[in-house]
Structures are given as structure tokens and as C-alpha cells.
Here is the input.
Amino acid sequence: MEEHMAKKLYVGNLSYSMTEDDMRETFGKIGEVLSAKIITDSETGRSKGFGFVEMANDEDGDKAITSLNGSSLLDRTITVSEARPQKERSKSGFGGGGGRGRSGGGGFGGGRKNNNWR
Here is the structure.
């Protein structure tokens, strides 16, 4: 169905001063990072305090979860977990962050139209 190589991680409670480079560096100590993305508010451009990191393989992904979840990064205790796939959202009726109606043009959170995040 889907290739089990890369593992996408959800990273929460990030410091607002955290950058994608910081994230790449932190997770890069554990394994190869394919991408690091901090979700920003489309209106203000400010960090929403969470993001996603894609690790090159499951093993590194799991290692990142066990070693970084609950750890302190820039004075915030971050949460790291496996990102849930966007596709099946049957249980909870809403997307992350009150994605009802028009999500402020930020393409994220409303995942209704298209599942085009790789």
C-alpha cells in the first residue's frame, strides 16, 4: 500500500523561536531527516508551535520518538509522536485546530479536498 521507509513524526509544544533548521539539527542527531516543517499561521506567519519531521526510516523515527518525546528543547517540553495519516479521520469529526469551514487558506488542517501532503 505505502512504502514503509520514511516515517513522519508530529512534533508539538515547540518554542515559537524554533526554526526548521533547529528541528532538522535536533532530529538529525538521531538519524537522517528527509524534511522538517513548522506549521505557521497563514495570517501572521508566526509559528503555531508544532510541526512535522520526516525521518528516513521507521527505525530512526521510532528512536526519535523514544529519545525526544518529553525532552526539553529551547525550554519547552516537546511531544514527539508518529504523525497520524490524514486520510482516515473517521473517529474525530474535526481536523487539528478547529478545521471547520474555511481553514484560513493555510492548506493544512482542513485536509478535506486533497491529501497531497507527501
Q: What stands out?
A: The chain is about 15% helix and 25% strand. Residues 58-68 form the longest helix (11 residues). The beta strands are 7-12, 33-40, 47-55, 72-73, 76-77, 79-82. The radius of gyration is 14 Å.
